[in-house]
TrEMBL record:
It comes from Anaerobutyricum soehngenii. InterPro entries: ThrE-like_N. Residues 10-65 form the Threonine/serine exporter-like N-terminal domain. This is Threonine/serine exporter family protein. Belongs to the ThrE exporter (TC 2.A.79) family. Pfam families: ThrE.
Amino acid sequence: MEKELILSKILEIGEEMLVSGGETSRVEDSISRLCVIYHMKDINVYSIITNIIVTVTDEDGKSIQSDPVSVGKLKKI
């Protein structure tokens, strides 16, 4: 559960970067680096202007996939 919460917070950071005008490549790189800091492996990040999807493996080999983050929803709020 802890890794899912950490991944959720990392995605919030990436989402804020996109909303603030950050480049998608910079967002992907930042998310990947944050995942490495928290000992996640097999990190796959896919980011476009409206969505971010992340899949990682934790130290125990458990695969964790994020719920897709829709940046468009945040802009509407």
